[in-house]
Amino acid sequence: MDISDRKSSFAGKATGIPNAHLKIAYLKGENCYLELVEYVNPKGKKLNSATNNIGSAHICFEVNDFLNFIVRFKLQGGLIISDPLVIPAGPNKGRYMVYAKDPDGNNIEFISSRKVRK
C-alpha cells in the first residue's frame, strides 16, 4: 500500500473541487489497483449510503477464514448488516457472504474464498 498526501492546484483541477487537499491510499492487488480517497479539505457532506439509493456503491472483497474475519471486522468498528448467509445460486453458490458498513458508512460485501462445507 502506498499513501500520498495531495495538496496542490492539480488536485483541485483534477477533481473540480477548488483547493482540494486529498489523502490517497493505493492498494495493489493481482491485476488491479484500489484507490481510496479522503477529502481532508474541503470536507464533504455525509450521504445516505443505503444500498438501494441512486449513486450508492459497494465493493466486494473475497476473504479467507471468513467467520474469524467477520469477528475482527466488528472489533475494528465495522457493522455487519446480517448474519453470514450461504449464497443459494449463481457463480458463488455455496459461499458465505455478508453486507457490511465500514466505520465511515461505506457499503462493503465480504464473500468467503471457499464454499461452505456441508
TrEMBL record:
This is VOC domain-containing protein. The lineage of its organism: Bacteria, Candidatus Woeseibacteriota. InterPro entries: Glyas_Bleomycin-R_OHBP_Dase, Glyas_Fos-R_dOase_dom, VOC_core. Signal peptide: none annotated. It comes from the Bacteria. It holds the Pfam family Glyoxalase. Residues 1-113 form the VOC domain.
